[in-house]
Amino acid sequence: MEKTNVFLDYKGKSYKIPVTRVEFEEATKSLMNRTEELLDDVVEESGISWDEIDQVLLIGGSTRMPMVQRKLEEKIGKKIVYSINPDEAVAQGAAIQAALEIANKSEGSDISEAVRGLAEKLVVSDVTSQALGTLALSNGVKRNTIIIPKNSKVPNKYSEYFSTVVDNQQNVLVEVTQGDDEDPQFVTVIGESTIKLPGDWAAGTTLKVTYHYDVDQTVFVEVHDSDNHLLGTFEVERQANLDKNAVELASRKIKDLTID
């Protein structure tokens, strides 16, 4: 099909908008380019090459787009596999994950042998989608220091060492960042807390900052002195979705849209 109609109801009126395949592919070209970049990043981070990949399965409704299928085949130089339903595969994956959760958390419960057998054979691990770090001075310049690297298996625990800046420093601000860049402009501060120090230390005294990251996307932060005495702790919940203010802002923008 080279042309279709999109029907839209807006402010009490109905609209019929014809869209050609050429127009659609042009409008979504930037998304396709971004998808290709993400594919390259994933393959590079996995430590393998496209030549080492035997098959590519299409998952998710967007992979039904002919442009996606065409671009993917051009990129990998192989025919893609259509043996599974891309929509059902997502639901099947969720069902498998649910079965694993039940089997792992409900020892002795009334679950089928098939589910228990599946749990014994499969290992599904979540990883951090972005690096987690903190802001600290390096030669007088504030930099982002990564504590938990991107793609680290969850749950995990990592530590880094820092130093006080001045004599008799009273406290230290621990800012939890999300992002891989060293430049603070290109990372996001997702939480922070001021930790009180003894107040009689010399400049350059060592502090150990430890991040515990759990499967619920909560970061537990601990700050210890050089003798491993706990100085302070706090936690940060990573937001997977837009917060309330962001949703309200997006809603206002949508209401301001007009169709001629």
What is the straight-line distance between the termini?
Answer: 27 Å
What is the structural class?
A: alpha+beta
Number of helices: 6
Number of structural units classed as domains: 3
Sequence of strands across the biggest β-sheet:
5-4-8-9
Name of the top-level CATH class of the largest domain: Mainly Beta
Low-confidence stretches: none
GO molecular function, one term: ATP-dependent protein folding chaperone
Keywords: ATP-binding, Chaperone, Nucleotide-binding, Phosphoprotein, Stress response
Function: Acts as a chaperone.
Family: Belongs to the heat shock protein 70 family.
Outline of the structure:
The protein is of the alpha+beta class and about 260 residues long. The protein has six helices and twelve strands.
Write up what this structure looks like.
This protein is α+β, with helices and mostly antiparallel strands and 260 residues long. It folds into three domains: 74 residues, Nucleotidyltransferase, domain 5 (2-Layer Sandwich); 33 residues, no CATH class; 109 residues, Substrate Binding Domain Of DNAk, Chain A, domain 1 (Sandwich), CATH 2.60.34. The chain contains six helices and twelve strands. The strands form four sheets. A four-stranded antiparallel β-sheet has the order 5-4-8-9, with no helix packed on it. The model has no long low-confidence stretch (mean pLDDT 85).
Annotation keywords:
single chain, 260 residues, alpha+beta, Nucleotidyltransferase, domain 5, Substrate Binding Domain Of DNAk, Chain A, domain 1, 3 domains, 4-stranded antiparallel sheet, 6 helices, ATPase_NBD, chaperone, ATP-dependent protein folding chaperone, ATP binding
